[in-house]
Amino acid sequence: MQYIQAKVTQEANFYGKLNPVELIEKYGGPLYIYSERILRERCRDIKRLMRGPNFIVNYSAKANSNLSLLKIIKDEGCCVDAMSPGEIYVQLQAGFQPAQILYIGNNVSAEEMNYAINQGIQVSVDSLSQLELYGKINPHSTVVARFNTGVGAGHHKKVVTGGEKTKFGIETAFIPEVKDILQKYHLRLIGINQHIGSHFMDTHSYISGVQALLDVATQFPDLEFIDLGGGFGIPYHKYENEQRLDLAELSEKLEVILTKWVNTYGKQMNFKVEPGRYLVAECGILLGKVHTVKTNYMTKYIGTDLGFNVLMRPVLYNSYHDIEIYRSSNMQSRCQEAVTIVGNICESGDIIAEERKLPEVFEEDIIGVLDAGAYGYSMASNYNNRLRPAEVLITTQGDDVLIRQRETLEDLVRHYNSNAHY
Ligand SMILES: Cc1ncc(COP(=O)(O)O)c(C=O)c1O
Ligand SMILES: N[C@@H](CCCC[NH3+])C(=O)O
């Protein structure tokens, strides 16, 4: 097999004992591959953000809720946050204890709240009306509230979750109303949280958000924890040597402001963060095959089986992913050229990479889409009745293990009611 453009994965010895062509031959494509080693490294990186037992990493499982990955993350000593009863269900299956799960809901129904409450899982509410609902359902208990401090950040406006133009969190101007509802239902606010948005690469906005959240915290004397949120970015432009987010710098800044704040609050505090992408993005690569190479009116299209049903990010946010090329044939790339890599979905926007400069690509080549572990499979769909792919873990020993089967055609009709009369 030839590694045509594969500097990143070769340096990381990503694929273990098999190469990407062999992995596709063995499991078929498209295929998500995850490196256990890189996943564990990222968990350890983020756990070094703060010292001591009062710091908890809550993995935000919406980024990737594969059961096997959850078990590894749990094994690394992380807890989790959940966005839905489905996430809670899978997290319990992965072995997390209810006390290790924080349900950070948004527009949650009474049934969904009860689902969490009945399992002993702490709920965080993000509006006055949800706080009222929680109080009615579960008075004389503890509650957590998500605030919107006005600070937002993110790689695209669709993923900025703090500030004026977002549905999330309780605006800080409503703190008096929060206190009234707490009193009315005899609720004790034990934690507050926020999440300013996804994928920041410098520490500035996160620190501003933390400072603003601490100002909110000062107004509630009974807190046991403050959850500072996630959003830690990863270098998607590895071929351009993009710098990593400076976690050491962030750690130093956090230490200064949190220590100062704890001294004035006058009581020990637990601090949490909620990283999703940071833990799982870089451990995942999406592999697919080139089925067609064609030119339409001067644009050279590389037609693959990587439709936006398997990786939505480029279509939804215009997101960039580095591309690698692996080849089983002896074909030789003669030049670098700008090509547009597309999938097999019936929409013109089904583009993974537009006008990307790559060594000449041939049919049957394997394409690797890097940093696809976060919001890849978890946002995959059955659009065009395509099947969601299989997922394979490369263990720290370099063995490949199937951790989720590829869907089958039968899965596509599994939930139809064939006895329906109409
Ligand atoms: C409440 C909450 N916490 C954490 C995250 C994780 O974000 P990220 O994957 O950017 O760390 C998200 C997603 O943006 C979120 O909505
Ligand atoms: N899905 C987004 C991140 C948003 C996370 C959820 N608030 C992405 O792929 O970048």
TrEMBL record:
Homodimer. Belongs to the Orn/Lys/Arg decarboxylase class-II family. LysA subfamily. It comes from Sporomusa malonica. The modification N6-(pyridoxal phosphate)lysine is found at residue 62. PROSITE patterns: ODR_DC_2_2 (PS00879). The active site is at residue 346. Residues 39-281 form the Orn/DAP/Arg decarboxylase 2 N-terminal domain. This is Diaminopimelate decarboxylase. Its cofactor is pyridoxal 5'-phosphate. Pyridoxal 5'-phosphate binds at residues 231, 274-277, 375. Pathway: Amino-acid biosynthesis; L-lysine biosynthesis via DAP pathway; L-lysine from DL-2,6-diaminopimelate: step 1/1. SUPFAM superfamilies: Alanine racemase C-terminal domain-like, PLP-binding barrel. GO terms for biological process: lysine biosynthetic process via diaminopimelate. Keywords: Amino-acid biosynthesis, Decarboxylase, Lyase, Lysine biosynthesis, Pyridoxal phosphate. It is an enzyme of class 4 (lyase). It comes from the Bacteria. Substrate binds at residues 277, 313, 317, 347, 375. It catalyses: meso-2,6-diaminopimelate + H(+) = L-lysine + CO2. Pfam families: Orn_Arg_deC_N. Its EC number is 4.1.1.20. Specifically catalyzes the decarboxylation of meso-diaminopimelate (meso-DAP) to L-lysine. Gene3D superfamilies: Alanine racemase (3.20.20.10), Lyase, Ornithine Decarboxylase, Chain A, domain 1 (2.40.37.10). GO terms for molecular function: diaminopimelate decarboxylase activity; pyridoxal phosphate binding.
